From TrEMBL:
<dbReference type="GO" id="GO:0031419">
    <property type="term" value="F:cobalamin binding"/>
</dbReference>
<dbReference type="GO" id="GO:0051536">
    <property type="term" value="F:iron-sulfur cluster binding"/>
</dbReference>
<dbReference type="Pfam" id="PF02310">
    <property type="entry name" value="B12-binding"/>
</dbReference>
<keyword id="KW-0411">Iron-sulfur</keyword>
<protein>
    <recommendedName>
        <fullName>B12-binding domain-containing protein</fullName>
    </recommendedName>
</protein>
<dbReference type="InterPro" id="IPR036724">
    <property type="entry name" value="Cobalamin-bd_sf"/>
</dbReference>
<dbReference type="InterPro" id="IPR051198">
    <property type="entry name" value="BchE-like"/>
</dbReference>
<keyword id="KW-0408">Iron</keyword>
<feature type="domain" description="B12-binding">
    <location>
        <begin position="1"/>
        <end position="144"/>
    </location>
</feature>
<dbReference type="GO" id="GO:0046872">
    <property type="term" value="F:metal ion binding"/>
</dbReference>
<keyword id="KW-0949">S-adenosyl-L-methionine</keyword>
<dbReference type="InterPro" id="IPR006158">
    <property type="entry name" value="Cobalamin-bd"/>
</dbReference>
<keyword id="KW-0479">Metal-binding</keyword>
């Protein structure tokens, strides 16, 4: 299965770990970066932000990657940006599943799961949960009992329990740094 991660203009260790684990399992990974020129929480300029708004291009790139799943790792400062892109993706392909993980969904899962453009949220660590999710989506029957994940199904929310934290982090593969370095080469210097 192809999984497309959507990210702002910075490296994400969480995405790198998930990509590495999923590649190990034989899945294909894409990364689409929104440069957010003049439109970040740290530097915002309304006029220039609109002029350099690349969100339509980002949405097109996500759809063109032909993913089976789109994933966002969301900090609170980027929540509205991620929702906006998720809405745009859903307008182009309503059936495409979108998962939000990271600090914001973990902190306020009840708020995030209510969003129309979010189908699944990951609460807490995603390494094991994400592998199970992709396996489920790749199979003939969906598994809605994956720990750390909440799902929308038939107008209701399925809230699964949290699994224990990974104790042996050495079992994780090295993060896939090339995923970001290939698109943001200045990070590798």
């Amino acid at each position: 299965m192809r999984i497309t991660f959507v990210q702002g203009p910075y490296e994400s260790l969480a995405v790198e770990y998930l990509a590495s684990i999923l590649k190990q399992k034989g899945h294909r990974i894409s990364l689409v970066i929104d440069p957010q020129l003049f439109n970040t929480v740290y530097f915002k300029n309304g006029l220039l932000g609109k002029f350099f708004d690349l969100r339509p291009w980002v949405i097109k790139a996500v759809i063109a990657s032909k993913p089976g799943l789109v994933a966002f790792s969301v900090f609170t400062s980027e929540y509205q940006w991620a929702l906006d892109l998720a809405r745009g993706i859903k307008q182009q392909n309503p059936a495409l599943p979108i998962v939000f993980g990271g600090f914001h969904p973990t902190s306020v899962p009840e708020v995030v799961i209510k969003q129309k453009s979010v189908d699944i949220i990951c609460i807490g660590e995603g390494e094991q949960a994400f592998v199970e999710l992709v396996k489920s989506l790749s199979g003939k029957r969906s598994n809605y009992r994956i720990k750390n994940l909440w799902f929308k199904k038939d107008g209701r929310v399925i809230k699964n329990e949290i699994r224990p934290l990974l104790e042996d982090l050495d079992q994780l593969p090295f993060p896939d740094k090339d995923l970001f370095f290939s698109q943001l080469p200045f990070l590798s210097k």
